[in-house]
Amino acid sequence: MTDRHTLERLSEEYRTGIPDDLREARSFTWYLDTLYDDPRVARNAHQRVADMFDHYGTQYDEADGLVEYALAAEDPLHDGENIFYGREIHEAIHEFVNKVKSGARGLGPEKRIKLLLGPVGSGKSHFDFLTRRYFEAYTREDAGRMYTFRWTDLCSVIDDQDPGDDTVRSPMNQDPLVLLPKEQRTAVIEDLNEILDAPYTLRNDQHLDPASEFYMDELLAHYDDNLEAVLENHIEVIRLVASENRRECIETFEPKDKKNQDETELTGDTNYAKLAVYGESDPRAFDYAGAFCNANRGLFSGEELLKLQREFLYDFLHASQEGTIKPKNNPRIDIDQVIVGRTNMPEYREKTGDEKMEAFNDRTKRIDYPYVLEYESESKIYQKMLQNADVPNVHVEPHTLEMAGLFGVLTRLEEPTDETVDLLEKAKVYNGELEDEEVDRRKLREDAEESADIGEGMEGVSARFIGDEIAEAIMDATHRDRSYLSPLSVFDHFEANLGGHGSIAADDLDRYERLLDTVREEYRERAIEDVRHALAYDVDELRRQGEKYMDHVMAYIDDATVDDELTGRETEPDETFLRAVEEQLDIPSDRKDDFRQEVSNWVSRRAREGRDFDPQDNDRLRRALERKLWEDKKHNINFSALVSATDLDEEERGAWVDALVDRGYSEDGAAEVLEYAGAAVARSEMEDGAD
């Protein structure tokens, strides 16, 4: 039994998770000294968010020129619960971060809305959600710390100040540097940039918010323009931690019915409780509760942004381009935030076709966030779904999630323009199953981008639909007292529910049903391979055959000899044996040298990495050797027993079931596969024998 979580232990764990200075008030002088020690404290929102992505770790894929950010690839804060899969997704995240980093350098994107465009269920909302969670965590760490200020002892100077407002926090959570007049602030920032070790320079041209401007003017007048006296006597610097729940430095905004939405939700409104105290035109009577106000210094997240009415989107023009907002009957207010919007395809097409939206469209940086296009990566989404849920005691059979992923991917791919490659082969190329020497993966992607309406992967069946059907199939299995989930049952749920799903257009149904038939046939081939394994597979023999193949390949490449296994004499490489293996992959004789060099290079790379040779680690070589073993052993198999259950010896059947169990099947699932694919294997071999 694990140690109990006592209240004392829980309290201590909480205390260690918050900044040490969260409740501590500091002087402006302290803050100025802190900036000279660590200039990064004065970063703007784009700079802080950019550094956040690097802070949690990166990995560079040189082949694809792609940076994978651990925030999304590993999710270290949540033990991997929110990992994102698929090259396309990490490309989108890479592009998003590049836009933020460009904005951090003042290259232009800081004045644009980062618009995540993608189909429903592609994960763009979840990525936005995760970014907000990490920003909260980052600002709690020393590396991401930031500060704001509050005005104190105001009633001692300002005669009409409400006693309830004797201490007033910066309503926009502004950086304390903004308290310095422009000329003096510029001098400080120039000093900081000289000692800053970063790919960007610090900049801050903001004005104080109107309420703070009022307090500053009143206090400077009282102290005869002695700025030091104002800052020492009436300013406290406090730690600022982002919190979406408290609406501090993070704000989400979503469209509502036109009649129930007002621009004041974005820019703030009059504080009617203070109106009677201060009067109508007094800046102290303004309520800085608008979404842009709350997001200052951090992240603004616009959900389904393009569903907003056109007139409502005008507020985003100055917010993005000028970094200001204009509340009704109030002066402009400077803002500093990363504005992120999300939208689905129909709304995007509608707004981009609207000439009156030209100004808004010009202020957006579109980032395509497509569906995953590698079906093994797609299957990991479903694995994660099952890992994060309370799944009944149902065994997921081999190929189930991969075939579900394959169906989803096939619906999303553009048809190849190369007539020598069909859609299924293209999916396998994207999945890394075929080498670039066979099919040019890069050209397939380039052709698809040219032929797609917006981009490949921006249409098709969502992972959400597939995940829902897997969940239904699991529950159906429990109701029927089935202890396993097989691809066949998932296919049945797909077929039954495709037509009733709201996000699937009726025009696509026929094509999706044909693609489902393609996936059924692909699974049938894999099931047949598994049955062949059960009948003839031998790990030790596979390794021996693999070692023999490599010995002869290396001798062939080096124009050398090999030792005969029986006599020990030196002989020429066995070309008959080599071709017997290679022909299992339909490799023609004029391509044999390419294949042999490929596997030779693979073995050499493993040797340099200190890894032993194992033919099972090379998919193509493994498949070839397995098929060769089948050809060698199938003559000793009782195929009639597979066709007729009455001819099947229980001991023989048990051995086959056990072999399938070793490959990851449950006993009931193994029995289903034997029934589904065993007869097909037997008939095929018996027909070949008759010929």
Task: Describe the fold and architecture.
- With 691 residues, this protein is an alpha/beta fold.
- It has 30 helices and 18 strands.
- The strands form 7 sheets. Strands 7-10-13-3-14 form a 5-stranded parallel beta sheet. Strands 5-4-6 form a 3-stranded antiparallel beta sheet.
- The chain is 50% helix and 9% strand.
- It is elongated and about 105 Å long.
- Among the domains are: 375-519, no CATH class; 545-620, no CATH class.
- This is Serine protein kinase PrkA.
- GO terms for molecular function: protein kinase activity.
- InterPro entries: Prk_AAA, PrkA_C.
Distance between the termini: 66 Å
- Indicate the proportion of strand residues: 5-15%
Largest sheet: 5 strands, parallel
Give the helix tally: 30
Could you give the count of β-strands? 18
Alpha-beta classification: alpha/beta
Rounded mean pLDDT is 89
Radius of gyration: 33 Å
Question: How would the global form be characterised?
Answer: elongated
Residue share in helix? 40-55%
- Strand arrangement within the widest β-sheet reads 7-10-13-3-14
Low-confidence segments, given as residue ranges, are none
